[in-house]
Amino acid sequence: MGSAPGRTVRRHRSAQRYPAARPPLWQARDVITRIDPEDSHPTSGYAHVTLVESGRLAFFAGQMPMDDSGERVVGVGDLDAQVDRTVVNAARALAAVGARPEDVVRTTVYVVASAAAEAGRAWHRFAGSEIGAAFTSASTLLGVAVLGFPDQLVELEMTAALSAPGPAAPSAGTPR
């Protein structure tokens, strides 16, 4: 990959082309490159820039620590339990469109927190989870005063780059 005139870049430690996970028809897998400009500050694992060469993107609504009924927040008062449940819900959402955590190109984490350390703890728990690869791309962490449901402490938004549609496209969800 070249760099812009007068600007050099270094590839993020996780920069790579992801191999096709589909039959030969899908060999033209999207390309996701994670980049840290040479003059940028070090990060805790995310890339400053995520370059996507993709024709399809999936924008995920905020994933929350809701139970399967969608009526109850899981882990009231327990940030770690809420992050863990949000991971479960986010993994399901990714699977519904045939995406992997490595396909995520942008995350935004909202945490009800009055201290940066508490918000950071949530981000690091996400990054160490089964969807942790999603947090190697562009990522933003925000401490907020309140979220949409009573007792909700965390919410996760994601954007993923998907392969072109084809006969093997997933159908784990119901399109509306």
UniProtKB/TrEMBL annotation:
It comes from the Bacteria. InterPro entries: RutC-like_sf (IPR035959), YjgF/YER057c/UK114 (IPR006175). It holds the Pfam family Ribonuc_L-PSP. Residues 1-20 are annotated as: Disordered. CDD domains: YjgF_YER057c_UK114_family (cd00448). PANTHER family: BLR7761 PROTEIN (PTHR43857), YJGH FAMILY PROTEIN (PTHR43857:SF1). This is RidA family protein.
